[in-house]
Amino acid sequence: MKFIIIGLGNFGSSLAEKLTNMHHEVIGVDNQMEKVEAIKDKISLAVCLNSKDPESLNTLPLKNSDAVLVCIGEDEGASLITTAHLKRLKVHRLISRSVSTIHETILEAMGITEIVRPEEESAMRWAQRLTSSSFLDSFELTNDYSVVEMIIPEKFIGKTIGQIGFNKNYHVIVLTTMKQVKEQNSIGASKMVKKLYGTANAETLLKEDDVLVIYGHKKNIQRLLEE
User: Fold this and answer.
1) Nearest partner of 149 among 217, 221, 218, 214, judged by Cα
2) Which of 5, 123, 139, 217 would bridge with 14, disulfide CB 3.0–4.6 Å?
């Protein structure tokens, strides 16, 4: 997969390196040459340009990228302007970082549905989210075990947890299921929130658009995600 990461601060550079280590193509962008120089040998390509300038943005392979991430953290204005330009250019998948509640509200009003919150989420978690179509979120309990939210695979829809045999066949435990529903924020913009169904059991029926919350060893969870 190919990613463009705009903003090479602590979070952006860490995410760029983790995606590169997962064998993905990463183009890193920043308006400060020292940040570009610091990472140029660690990722596919590092570019110094002003992302607030739409003509400069157009020199990037936006249409050929799986996702463009705006990870600018020091300048909210630059982040919003860059996001607005990319929204207008209709990139395939646009993800933007928020640095405050107001910033996040403005991004939601702009129609940005995927928002990075570095203070709450790790670069590794976002690397997994970007590279797996089923992965939504995770919480590490130890170095080996995690709780993960994942979209229910199509082949599981209409079956019960008992019929699938998560514990027997995949060696993971289903804790609960939930659904993502739309709600409006304080200014009337739509945002997705999670609605829990309660503790799962063998009779729990998996429905389209449901989300599984599973617990297990990371290698077993990864095997399930890959399927």
Assistant:
1) 214
2) 123
Q: What's the pLDDT tens digit per position in 170-213? A: 999 988 888 766 666 665 666 666 677 778 889 999 988 888 88
Provide the token pair at 142.
């130890």
Q: What is the pLDDT of residues 1-14, one digit of tens each?
A: 899 999 999 889 99
Are the C-beta atoms of 138 and 149 separated by less than 8 Å?
yes
The DSSP call for residue 205 is: B
Distance CA 141, CA 110 (A): 35
Question: Residue 182: which H helix or E strand, with range?
Answer: strand 172-184
| pTM of the entire predicted model | 0.62
Side by side, the strands of the sheet bearing 45-48 are 45-48, 25-30, 2-6, 67-70, 94-97, 114-116
Give CA–CA dist 80/103, Å, rounded.
8
CA angle 131, 72, 98 (to 5 degrees): 80
Which residues 6+ apart lie within 8 Å of 199 measured at CB? 175, 176
CB-count burial class (<10 Å; 0-12, 13-18, 19+) for 188: exposed
- The mean per-residue pLDDT over the stretch 47-60 comes to 94
For the stretch 9-42, what's the b/e string if a residue is b when 16 or more beta carbons lie within 10 angstroms of its beta carbon?
bebbbbbbbbbbeeebbbbbbbbeeebbeebeee
